[in-house]
UniProtKB/TrEMBL annotation:
The gene is lpdA. This is Dihydrolipoyl dehydrogenase. One of its GO terms (cellular component) is cytoplasm. Keywords: Cytoplasm, Disulfide bond, FAD, Flavoprotein, Lipoyl, NAD, Nucleotide-binding, Oxidoreductase, Redox-active center. FAD binds at K53, T144, G145, S146, D314. The chain holds residues 94 to 560 of 560 of the full protein. The keyword NAD applies. GO terms for molecular function: dihydrolipoyl dehydrogenase (NADH) activity; flavin adenine dinucleotide binding. It comes from Lachnotalea glycerini.
Length: 467
């Protein structure tokens, strides 16, 4: 049986883009139908942000126990990682959040339909699942997210080659792992495995890790990673993966000195994600894809070329971050409500959960200089921060970029303790056009890592007090 439904707003995909848009629309009195083919919460909650951060925490505990003497404690014997229990803990966190979303859907009277959505035409979507539906909607938001990209390296389909999704459910901890890709996902996993005591190699094609961050920051994380014993191979191209006679992974890679072999128990391919349009029959909607032919093309109001169809999140291929997807969802709903909001990307924070963490927001030093802007840069080291020392985390620094003409702080990058939390204050400052003075005259509590922001702002004028 085919059930027919009509709704004000149909949202396809219940990741951080789709489910947040659904709540926001429902709070604004729209009748909302949300279709999800898999688990609520999308990539972020099931195989992305949340599970990786649960593993980051378990790995941090393992690292601290192994270095208990640094905190004045003696731990007898070897710390044994029970990966099965680590994965179970991760699943517990994830499941608790999924129930939270289920609760919010009910509370906001959102009609959730489980099944695969496919366009029939501009206004109609068919859903195939336990029950089948034909849904007619006034407005549609496509929030189908992304999937793991495939690359044509011979041997990628060998059983010991993991991707981020399979790695997150694997209950065996390898003795050694080679990670292909020194981007965000690759580097987060590199520290996770290292802190669990695994031998880790990272192979990166570019000449540096984390090419999206300031070069000083990527140099610093490379130094720290190497100090921790992570082996970094930049400027290296993986040619093939083979299995040795005893079942180990043998990677052949090439750098400017020639060809090399790397042997490890497992390989983690962390080579990127691309928009997921599988089974969506997007061509029947008349929606145009972007120039790369991969994501859905949208304007600043998140509208596609079809005026009542919007797209948000990873499927637009603009920025692959959960909070961007959520905010784009709110902008799309505002436009459906005729509020004419536009998406503004100049102060989107970006966090990388390495150890220490990395976070940045606004314009970087290089970008500002390339644009010919009159800027100055200040720097303050965590070694001069009392709280960081109590945490045994003296590594890292903060860098601020100031527009000399307006005195406004326009960018900031942090590598150091609590960077993921500190970036919120900096984002507030940058998004609201705070000047150097507005930061220096603000009182920051002591002892907190947040004081590095104050110190870096002082560094533009009289100089930081503790450096
Ligand atoms: P998704 O979360 O991908 O959700 C899309 C949903 O649509 C899925 O549930 C899918 O099943 C459903 N769907 C697809 N097609 C259909 C269809 N035809 N019918 C019905 N349903 C459909 N971002 C951060 O901001 N911070 C992090 O720390 C972070 N860590 C990450 C770690 C990893 C390992 C990975 C892989 C990603 C990470 N990300 C992180 C990125 C983040 O997960 C994504 O940017 C975010 O999930 C995008 O949200 P979305 O709503 O656009 O799509």
């Amino acid at each position: 049986v085919l059930k027919e439904l009509s709704t004000d707003l149909l949202i396809i995909g219940a990741g951080p883009g789709g489910y947040v848009a659904a709540i926001y629309a429902a709070k604004n009195k729209l009748k909302v139908t949300l279709v999800e083919k898999s688990e609520m919460g999308g990539t972020c909650l099931n195989v992305g942000c949340i599970p990786t951060k649960a593993l980051v925490k378990s790995a941090e505990v393992c690292h601290n126990l192994n270095h208990a003497s640094l905190f004045g404690m003696e731990v007898e014997g070897k710390i044994a990682v029970n990966m099965k229990q680590v994965i179970e803990r991760k699943d517990k966190v994830k499941n608790r959040l999924i129930s939270g979303i289920d609760f919010l859907m009910k509370k906001n009277d959102i009609n959730v339909i489980k099944g695969q959505a496919a366009f029939v035409n501009q206004d109609t979507v068919a859903v195939t699942g336990n029950e089948n539906f034909i849904i007619k909607a006034n407005d549609i938001i496509v929030a189908t997210g992304s999937k793991i990209s495939k690359i044509a390296i011979p041997g990628m389909d060998l059983p010991f080659v993991w991707n981020s999704t399979t790695a997150l459910s694997n209950t065996e901890l390898p003795k050694s792992i080679s990670i292909i890709g020194g981007g965000v996902i690759g580097m987060e996993f590199a520290f996770i495995y290292k802190n669990f005591g695994v031998e880790v190699h990272v192979i990166e094609f570019m000449d540096r890790l984390l090419t999206m961050v300031d070069r000083d920051i990527s140099n610093e994380i490379q130094n720290i990673a190497e100090e921790e014993g992570i082996k970094i191979h930049t400027g290296s191209k993986v040619m093939k993966i083979q299995s040795s006679v005893d079942g180990k992974a043998v990677i052949t890679y090439e750098d400017k000195t020639g060809e090399h072999l790397l042997v490890s128990d497992n390989v983690l391919a962390a080579i990127g994600r691309e928009p997921d349009l599988d089974g969506l029959s997007i061509e029947k909607s008349g929606v145009t894809l972007n120039s790369k032919g991969k994501g859905i093309q949208v304007d600043a109001s998140m509208r596609t070329n079809i005026s009542h169809i919007y797209a948000i999140g990873d499927v637009t291929n603009i920025i692959q971050l959960a909070h961007v997807a959520s905010h784009q969802g709110i902008v799309a709903v505002d436009n459906i409500l005729k509020k004419q909001e536009v998406m503004e990307y100049s102060s989107v924070p970006n966090v990388i959960f390495t150890v220490p963490e990395i976070a940045s927001v606004g314009i970087g030093e290089k970008e500002a200089k390339e644009k010919g802007m009159n800027v100055s840069v200040s720097k303050f080291s965590f070694a001069g921060n009392g709280k960081a020392l109590t945490m045994n985390e003296p590594r890292g620094f903060i860098k601020l970029v100031k527009n000399n003409e307006t005195s406004k702080i326009i960018g900031g990058s942090i590598i150091g303790a609590d960077a993921s939390a500190l970036i919120s204050s900096l984002t507030l400052a940058i998004a609201n056009g705070f000047t150097e003075k507005e930061i220096t005259k603000t009182i920051f509590s002591h002892p907190t890592t947040g004081e590095v922001i104050h110190e870096a702002a002082l560094e533009f004028g009289i100089g930081a007090l503790h450096q």
